[in-house]
Structures are given as structure tokens and as C-alpha cells.
Amino acid sequence: MAGVGSHTAILPFSAKPLRNRSGPRRVSVSVRNAISVEKKEKSFTLEKSEEIFNAAKELMPGGVNSPVRAFKSVGGQPIVFDSVKGCRMWDVDGNQYVDYVGSWGPAIIGHADDTVNAALIETLKKGTSFGAPCYLENVLAEAVIAAVPSVEMVRFVNSGTEACMGALRLARAYTNRQKIIKFEGCYHGHADPFLVKAGSGVATLGLPDSPGVPKAATSDTLTSPYNDIDTVKSLFETHKGEIAAVILEPVVGNAGFIIPDTGFLTELREITKANDSLLIFDEVMTGFRLSYGGAQEYFKITPDLTTMGKIIGGGLPVGAYGGRREIMEMVAPAGPMYQAGTLSGNPLAMTAGIHTLKRLSEPGCYEYLDKITGQLVNGILDAGKRAGHEMCGGYIRGMFGFFFTGGPVSNFEDAKKSDTVKFGKFHRGMLEEGVYLAPSQFEAGFTSLAHTEQDIQFTVEAAERVLKRI
To answer: Which of 16, 63, 153, 436 could make an S-S bridge to 328, C-beta 3.0–4.6 Å?
Structure first.
């Protein structure tokens, strides 16, 4: 199926093509006063987004429930969205965008996929949460175990943060050690031990750490620059017999898109084995995105534990951690390491995950993602070069990124050399052209099977216009 270019040709299960959304459609949004939404051709305006967001700031800290959505890194008016379908989003002012955020990664087969939605409706009729075992947990667990090389048993949770918390506690319980090594710019959720040089939203807001995190919570967290194997070796030598695990994003997505140097992951695997420490891949972003078996299948490096999220829930809240059976059997109730969750394994998230993975298991999906993402990134970088901008970037399958710096970018310090003011101007210009990119220089972007080559061409042409203007 590689090289298939039409939207309808790559969707299975007799999925209907994206319906015409150009006609008027009225929706009521209740924020103090009802605000109508009409989807029609008109000039770019964010008046209704501004009205709703101003009201939100009185109701929620910063007006959002996750910091990057507030556009602090890029400036301008945050956008309030009304609906999504395929690779497109519509805001409350009726503006339409080609989307490269994909709900921060889950929407790899496209937003509001017809087959996933139909399955969710049928599951919904049976109930939203049981707080007890359901068969769907078995089905998704079997699919994850079959796909991900390191996973022999899996525990489902409700977020990537939960997954990383569980994996860290498990690594410490299994090794009977306390210290961990993480990498600068890698984000593993907002749990206290991980908020040290954490990249992502922390970098977006310019906060080196977070107030409220006790020193004791991070005293056993050691850090190294990403791609710096010598620092890792030095940390193991200094803290011999004390390091429980090394945790990392095998491809960094929370400091922008940064790939591992040749041999870096291999050496980490060798060092952790030699020191009886565990290697943990945080595949919340990369899982089922770089390949069906994640980054570990793509790079052919098998960690001891893996954390997952995003795609395995098909757009619903989900997370998971898994690994070798002998390690996972320490998790309660099989073992003494306690972790629990009210909504873990709920039937809706399991259903969405099952049908998303079913779609991704079909031949040609990742070849198609690689093709269109390559066209996108190369097109934008070429346009930047013609316009006289210093830029660099890259991609793997359905994940990409670019920086406003000449590069190369091998770690977070390199990424911070980017011209973030220029990125902010580029981001705003692309919004006006109908393209929604992540509102931070320090976030990866995502493509989906719903993107067509026409969508990519539209985006590259928009980028060329904006890059000339700025």
C-alpha cells in the first residue's frame, strides 16, 4: 500500500470519505452566553475563540487544562476548537485547519475515524466503566504483547504520566535500588521524580523545574544530555550499584524532534545490562508510530520495560507499562509493588485502542506515513532555505520536527539555540494559512493516514508563503 495517495483508498472497513464541511453548521457553545458557530468561507478571525478563552481564564488556571495550549511559547490568541475529522480541525470561528498535532499523537489514523466511532457507540451501550475486569482488556493486551518486542505482560493505566510513575516504581522494586538516569529535555509526565530538566511544557514556559517538587523527590534523579554516552558511563561509575534504571524517549519528542545518534541506544542497552540496571523506553509518543512495534522494533533495541499511551487508546485517555514477565509479576496483585486505578482498562479506551491497532496492522501504513512525512519536512526545509532561513529538521514515519537553527540538533541544548521568536511568527502565519502546528518550538509534530498528498502540498505551499513573509 506504500505510495497510496488518496484518502479513500487507504481507509479500510468501507469507511466513508470525509464529508463536505463547507456548508453552514450551527452549534451552541454554553460559556456564559451561547456562541453560535458557522462553518463557511470567510476571513481569518479568532473573535469567538478570544471570547471563550477570556471566560476560561476565570474558570481554569491560565484558561487551559494543559499549559502548552495557552500559546505562551508562540504568542497570540489560543484557539478554541469545535470539531475534528480526518486530518482537519474546525475552530469556533469557523476556521478550518490541516492538523499536524493529532491530539498530541493519538490520531494516527485520523480524527473521529468512522470505524472506531461505530465500535465506541456499540461499547457505550453496554456502559462506560465497570471497575471490574472486562474481556476487551484481554484483547488489547494480546495485541500490545504481540506487537511490542519487550512486552510479555502489560498493565493498563489512564495516562502516560501514570505509566511512567508505575514503571519507575517497578524498576526500583525489582532492582532494590533508588537512583535513576533521565535525559535533559526528555519528558516523562509531571510526576515529581521526572520534573528535572524535563523539556516539553516546562521548556515552553521557561521553567527549569516546578515549584512544589520537594528536593527529596528528585535527589535520586541523575541527568545526562541526550546522546551523551560518556556522561552516562561516568554516572554509572560514580554511583556504582545504585542505579535502578535508565529511562528515555528513544526518539525525543518533548524537546522538538531529536533522533538518537548511531550506536547510542545500543550502548545504553549494553551499559544497563552490565550494571544490572533496567532500560526503560518511554514510548508514549513513539509507540505504534515509528513502527507497529514502536521505536524498539524500528531500532532493533529491546528494553526491559516500556511505557505507552496515546495511540493505544485511539484518542481516549489511556496509558500502559509492560515488560518481561519476571519483572511485571512484581506488580500487585501478583506481587508486592502496588499500583491501582479506578478507570484503568475501561471498555471505551480498550475499544478505541483495539480498532486503532487493527487499522495500523494492515500492510503499507507505515510506508505511507514515511512517504508523506518526508514530503512535508523536505518541502518546508527547502522552502526555508530558499527564503534565507537557517533551519534543520527530520522525520521517522509519522513523527517529525524542525528547528529555526542551522543545527545539527542532537540534544536539548542544541534545540535551545533555535530562534523561538521566528518560530512564533511562523506558527501564527501558518494558522492564518489554515495549518495547525504544535504551538511550541519544543514539540514534535505528527502526520496521520488521513493526510493526503494534496494536504501535504497545501501545507508546503502555505509554508513557502509564510517563510517569505517573515
So the answer is: 153
pLDDT number for residue 199: 56
* DSSP 8-class letter at 337: B
H-helix or E-strand spanning residue 89:
strand 88-91
pLDDT tens for 14-62 read 333 333 333 333 333 333 333 334 444 568 999 999 999 999 999 999 9
Give the other-Cβ count within 10 Å of 257's Cβ: 25
- For residue 47, the SS3 value is helix
Distance spanning both ends of the chain, measured CA to CA: 38
Distance CA 228, CA 234 (A): 10
**CA nearest 175: which of 104, 279, 260?**
279
For the annotated catalytic residues, the residue numbers are 187, 282, 310
Strands (E), 60-101: 81-85, 88-91, 96-99
pLDDT in the model for residue 42: 64
50-58 long-range contacts, Cβ below 8 Å, gap at least 24? 50/77, 52/80, 52/92, 53/77, 53/78, 53/80, 55/31, 56/31, 56/80
pLDDT digits (tens, 9 = 90+) for 353-382: 999 999 999 999 999 999 999 999 999 999
